[in-house]
Write a structure and sequence with these properties.
The protein is an alpha/beta fold and 333 residues long. The chain has one domain: Spore Coat Polysaccharide Biosynthesis Protein SpsA, Chain A. Helices cover 49% and strands 14% of the residues. The chain contains eleven helices and twelve strands. The strands form three sheets. Strands 3-2-1-4-8-6-9 form a seven-stranded mixed beta sheet, with helices on both faces. The chain has a three-stranded mixed beta sheet with strand order 5-10-7. β1, α1 and β2 form a beta-alpha-beta unit. α5 packs across α11, α8 packs across α11 and α9 packs across α11.
């Protein structure tokens, strides 16, 4: 398992604790943590955990700031992957939590299925505010699209917080050899589709779920979504481009129609009809997905999410064209 950690002193210890609690044989596990020039106590927490758990195979890499680095996270992940010795590489973010059977399930699925890239479930947890709950419901829908598209042999998305890739495949596709600061997950997916499209699978297992947190502030949310959207300029995968364009323009259309309906009353009924049809279609898709992730309790927030979604997608879609954002205290493009 590999982790790129930057300024995660409050979470990295919990993530490493989950690794230590795995049911998979300890002698078959290794973890490489690349500290990406953290400016807080992240590195000290990692070293303290390693010292307290000498029975675990943990390697620590200390990355330094350098001039001309396009993507610090990809640099850290690449260094971590090259320091591993295993056949299957599992990626995890430093602020994630997961259950004790995660690696066991991944290893079993890899042994049972002829796949080279495993897409795995991620979900938000500990949602407290209304804003966090709306994000969680939307993200659950994104994971539903990830699973559904992979099931149709047309995967369009992946999440680096929970992904597994064969070492030989990673080397074959050139690793993170792309000029974009973000997208350590989706570019791996799209390059895999070019060389071995039939060896990609989504693993639907609650034991394999990785838990992470929603953004707590509006500023952090928009910065995150601009970061996600900025990499779209590098997409060459037709299915991904079509899905992004459909998502953007369908939500832009809904926003436009609602605004026009409020301004010109004769258009209000058609606007409400279009909005209602989209709401019904989305609910039919979301109900089984939220049940799997045990997030059905968030469905009552769908009307609010459906109003918020077109607005933020339209805004971030435009802002993403610039591609400027801040990640872990660094200004990137």
């Amino acid at each position: 398992m590999v982790i790129a950690a930057r300024n995660e002193e409050s979470t990295i210890g919990l993530c490493l604790t989950d690794f230590a609690a795995q049911t998979y044989p300890k002698e078959l596990m290794e973890i490489v943590v690349a500290d990406d020039a953290s400016t807080d106590g992240t590195l000290a927490v990692i070293k303290s955990f390693v010292a307290a758990n000498p029975q675990l195979n943990i390697k620590v890499l200390e990355m330094k700031d350098e001039e001309g680095v396009v993507s610090y996270k990809k640099r850290a992940l690449s260094a971590a992957i090259h320091a591993t010795t295993g056949e299957l590489i599992v990626t995890t973010d430093a602020d994630c939590r997961f259950g004790p059977k995660r690696l066991e399930v991944i290893a079993q699925q890899y042994e049972d299925n002829p796949v080279s890239l495993l897409l795995l479930p991620v979900v938000f947890n500990n949602e407290k505010s209304l804003f966090e709950k709306i994000q969680s419901l939307e993200f659950t829908g994104i994971m539903g699209i990830t699973a559904a598209s992979a099931g149709l042999d047309r995967p369009v998305s992946s999440n680096g917080a929970n992904m597994a890739i064969e070492r030989r495949l990673f080397e074959r596709i050139g690793g993170f050899d792309d000029p974009y600061a973000s997208g350590d997950d989706v570019f791996i997916l799209y390059k895999t589709k070019e060389v071995t499209p039939k060896r990609i699978a989504f693993i639907k297992s609650t034991d394999a779920i990785v838990y992470t947190g929603a953004q707590k502030t509006l500023g952090g949310f928009f910065n995150q979504r601009v970061r996600w959207g900025a990499k779209a300029k590098g997409f060459s995968d037709v299915a991904a481009l079509v899905s992004i364009l459909l998502l953007f323009f369908s939500n832009l259309m809904v926003t436009t129609v609602i605004i026009l309906g409020l301004i010109f009353m004769p258009l209000l009924i058609p606007a409400l009809l279009i909005f209602s049809l989209k709401l019904i279609a989305d609910m039919v898709f979301l109900i089984p997905v939220t049940r799997f992730y045990k997030k059905a309790g968030l469905l009552p927030f769908y009307p609010l999410m459906s109003l918020w979604l077109p607005i933020y997608i339209s805004i971030t879609g435009i802002l993403s064209l610039r591609g400027n954002y801040v990640w872990k205290g660094r200004k990137l493009r």
